[in-house]
Amino acid sequence: MTPKGDLKMDKMVVVEGSYAVAHAVKVCRPNVISAYPITPQTHIVEDLAKFIADGEIQNCECINVESEFSALSALVGSSAVGARSYSATTSQGLELMHEVLFNVAGMRLPIVMTVANRAVSAPINIWNDHQDAISQRDTGWIQLYGENIQEVSDMTAQAFKIAEDKDILMPAMVCMDGFILSHVYEPLVMLEQDLTDEFLPSYEPLNILDPKKPLSFGAFADPNYYTEFRYMQQKAMTNALKKIEDAADEFYDLFGRYYGGLIDEYQTEDADIILMAMGSIIGTIKDTIDKLRQKGVKVGLLKVRAFRPFPAEAIRKAVKDAKIVVVLDKNISLGLNEGALFTETKSCLYNTSNHVPVVGYMIGHGGRDIRMSTIENIISEAQEVMKSGIKVESQFTDLREELL
Amino acid sequence: MKEIRIHGRGGQGSVTAAELLAVAAFADGKFSQAFPAFGVERRGAPVQAFTRINDEPIRLRSQIYEPDYVIVQDPTLIEVVDVAGGLKDDGTIIINSDFDPSHFKLDTKAKVVTVNATKIALDIIGRPIVNTVLLGAFAGATGEIRPESIKKAVKERFPGKVGDRNAEAIQQAYDMMKEAKA
Amino acid sequence: MKIPIGGVCEPGTTIANKTGGWRTYRPVYDYEKCIKCKLCELLCPDMSVFPKEDGYFQFNYDYCKGCGICANECPKSAITMVLEEK
C-alpha cells in the first residue's frame, strides 16, 4: 500500500466505485465496449455509455447486445481487428460467457473485463462472493483482485498493459467485490489521463483481421497441434507472473501508488499466523490485525492480487516462517468442501520442505457480512491449531446452525 | 472513527444521504466511506445506509453494528426496525418527527432528538424529501460536520434551483438543532 | 513450421490439399447439349466448376471429388460421369 504520507488528499474525490472504474476505463482509451447490464455491474456500463454519448471517449464504439454471450462474442471480433476492447459483467452473466472466455484466451485476444463479483444462482442472490470468477479460473484469463476502489481503478490500466504485452497476449479480469466496492463511495485519486497515456501505450496487435489482407483467426488445431497451443497459453501465463510485478512497479514509479504485485504482505515479517485472502475483505483483516497486534498476537496477512496466474513461488516465500497459514475463501468447490485459494495454497506447498499447517475457511457467501469479530474468532482458532494440530481442515464460517 | 447508520424506506433517499455525508466529510478534510445495505430494492421497504468518517483512511468494510449516530428518516420504522440497536451510550439518534423526543420509548441510553424535517422540506423544497434536511439536522445536533460542506455536496449533486432550496432547508434544520442545543 | 500465437494463419490452406484423387467417376461436358444455365456451377459443393470465356463451363479436376451432383441436376443431361482410369 502507498505509505500514508504519500496520500494526496487534495487530488482525491469521493465517488462511487463503479464511477471510478468507468473513469479508469475511459482514460485507458478503449475502442470498443460491449456489455450487458447485470446487478451489481450496471453502474459501470451506464457511466461508460454516458461518457460515450457525451463524446468523452473519442474513437470508441459501444455495441448494444442481447446477452453476455453476445457481448463477449462481439469483442472477439473487435479485438481481432485490433481494437482495445472492454466489457464488464458478474455472476450469471460471467457464467453465460463461459464458452466465449475460452475462445478469447485461445485466440490470444487481450480483452479486459471488470467482474463485479457476485454469488451465483440458485438460490438467486445479488450480493458479493467470488464464486463467479473462481468458477472461470481455468479459462485462460488473468484474474486480478482489488482491495479498494483506488486499487481496482488503477488495476484497470495495469490489466490492459499486462494483457496487451507481446509476451502475454492473454485476456484479463479485474475483479472487484460487488456492492462492497462497486457501490461504495470513498475518496480516491481518479486515474490520471496524462500519466495513463504515458503508462499505457496504444494497443499494437500482432495480427489484424482485415478483409483487404485476409487471415484466419480461431482456426482448427488437430491432435498434432492442440497440445502445443495449450502449452503456449500456459507459457504466456508464466510470463504474466513477472509482467504483473513489473506493471505494479512501473505504475508506482509513474503514479506513486502501489498495492503489491502478485501478492502483498502486511505485518508478515515476524508473524506466526498468516492469513490469506483476496478482495475487499483485506481491509477488514488489516484492521483486525492492528487490533490483535496491540494484544501481542503475531498475525499477518498475505493479500493475493493475482489468482491467475497463480503466484505459487511468491506464496511459498511469504509463508516460509509462518507457524500456521489460514486461507479465507469467498467460494467453495462443492464436493471438495474447500475454497480454491485454500486448495491451491496447500498444493503449492506439498512438494516442498515447508510443512506448515494450512487451514481453510469459506466465508462471506452470498454477501454474508464479514465482521472483525469473525476474523478474530478465526485467528483464535488458528492459535488453538498451532498448539494442538489440525482438527478441521476446511470449514464454513458463521454457519447459522439454527437454520439447518 | 465515527459511524453513522441511516434508516429509511426505499425511495426516501437514505443511500443518497449516506453518500452526500461522505462527500461532505471529505470536504471537511476527513476520510469517509458510504455504502448501502442492499436488500430487495422497492419503494417503501425498510433500507439502511452507512457512513464512516475518520481521520485515517478507512479499511473496514463490514456493516455498522455499533453506530455513534443514527438517523431515522421515517418514524413509522421504529415499530418495524430496531433503529437504536447497538447505538453507543454516548451517541445520538435523530428522528424525523413532529413529536417531542420523549414520545419515543427507545431502548437506548443515547441522546434522542427530533426534527420536523418533513415540514421543513415541504415549506422550503416543496416536496416531502427529507434526506438532505436531516443531514443539516445531523450537522447541527452533532457538530461532526460543517453545514457548508453538506450544502456544497448537495448543490453539486443537484445543481440549480433544487440544490439551492435543499441548501436553504439544510441551513434551517441546522439552525434549529443549534438553537435546541443552546 | 512454428505455431503462430493464437493460431492466426494465412487463409486458403485447403487449396494446398488437392482432393481430386478421391474421385472414381469424372464429370465430362457435352457442350452440344449445354444451355449455359449455370446450375452445375451453383450446385457444385467443392467450387470445382468454373465459367469459360465463351460462357460454357469447365471442371477443376484437382478438387472435383466426382460426387455427380452436377450430372444429376443438369436439366439437359449435358454432363456424363465417366469411370476414371487409374
Question: Topology of this structure?
Answer:
The complex is a heterotrimer of chains A (404), B (182) and C (86).
Chain A: E1 12-16, H1 17-27, E2 32-34, H2 42-53, E3 61-63, H3 68-80, E4 85-89, H4 91-96, H5 98-106, E5 112-117, H6 131-134, E6 142-145, H7 149-164, E7 172-177, E8 185-189, H8 193-199, H9 226-255, E9 263-266, E10 273-277, H10 281-294, E11 299-304, E12 306-308, H11 312-318, E13 324-329, H12 340-350, E14 358-362, H13 372-388, E15 394-396
Parallel strand pairs in A: 2-3, 2-4, 4-5, 5-7, 6-7, 10-11, 10-13, 13-14, 14-15
Antiparallel strand pairs in A: 1-8, 6-12, 9-11
Chain B: E1 2-9, H1 14-27, E2 31-37, E3 46-54, E4 69-72, E5 92-96, E6 111-115, H2 117-125, H3 131-142, H4 147-157, H5 161-181
Parallel strand pairs in B: 1-4, 4-5, 5-6
Antiparallel strand pairs in B: 1-3, 2-3
Helix pairs in contact in B: 1-3, 1-4, 2-3, 2-5, 3-4, 3-5, 4-5
Chain C: E1 25-29, H1 39-43, E2 49-51, E3 57-59, H2 69-73, E4 79-83
Antiparallel strand pairs in C: 1-4, 2-3
What does this structure look like?
The complex is a heterotrimer of chains A (404), B (182) and C (86). In chain A, the strands form 3 sheets. Chain A has a 7-stranded mixed sheet, sandwiched between helices. Chain A starts with 11 loop residues before the first strand and ends in an 8-residue tail after the last strand. By secondary structure, chain A is of the alpha/beta class. Chain A has helices at residues 17-27, 42-53, 68-80, 91-96, 98-106, 131-134, 149-164, 193-199, 226-255, 281-294, 312-318, 340-350, 372-388; strands spanning 12-16, 32-34, 61-63, 85-89, 112-117, 142-145, 172-177, 185-189, 263-266, 273-277, 299-304, 306-308, 324-329, 358-362, 394-396. Chain B is α/β, with parallel strands linked by helices and 182 residues long. In chain B, strands 2-3-1-4-5-6 form a 6-stranded mixed sheet. In chain B, helix 2 packs across helix 3 (131-142). Chain B starts with a strand and ends with a helix. By secondary structure, chain C is of the alpha+beta class. Chain C starts with 24 loop residues before the first strand and ends with a strand. Chain C has 2 helices and 4 strands. Chains in contact: A-B, A-C. At the A-B interface, strand 1, strand 8 and helix 10 of A face helix 1 and strand 2 of B.
